[in-house]
Amino acid sequence: MSLLSNLGGLFGGGQGGDAAGASSLVSVAGQLIQQAGGVQGLTNLLQQHGMGEAVQSWVSNGANQAISSGQLGQALQNGGLGSVLSEAAGKLGVDQNQLLGQLAQVLPHAVDHLTPDGQVPASGGGGGFDLSALGGLAEKLLAARTA
Asked: Which of 28, 64, 86, 98 has the greatest count of CB atoms below 10 A from its CB?
């Protein structure tokens, strides 16, 4: 099963569901990154909660290590981003645990996408992250699924 093979079921099914689900998940990932203070803020947060090796794999140019939805949920809750998760789950009409399961698969790709040179971009606070930087990620993930 690929990352996006479950999106249709999670976000309403059908071919259009895959695209809408991918866009929704990428949007939520972007919101989390923005609220954490950019890529640097999110990677620092996750490293502080024991996911340093996995996060470094996302930033580097190698394969991305997986994290569990439980690890991600705990880190985000303890890092003050629980309200972002609750709000996103409510807007999407899904259980927060379902959302975390999908985000645990999407966030590594999002961080990887935002660090193409294998370096976390330096940012000065939460205002420096531009959500449009994730613009092509949903299409990239969908293309990888169909390839």
From this structure: 28
Percent of the chain's residues with pLDDT above 90: 46
Under 8 Å between Cβ of 103 and 69: yes
Which domains does the chain carry?
15-146 (1.10.10.690)
Measured between alpha carbons, how far is 80 from 128 in angstroms, rounded to an integer? 19
DSSP structural state of residue 129: -
CA distance readout (Å), 104 to 64, 71, 129:
11, 9, 20
Within 10 A of 113 (CB to CB), how many other CB atoms are there?
Answer: 19
Q: How many CA atoms within 13 Å lie on the side-chain side of 134?
A: 27
Considering the chain, what is the average pLDDT of its residues?
79
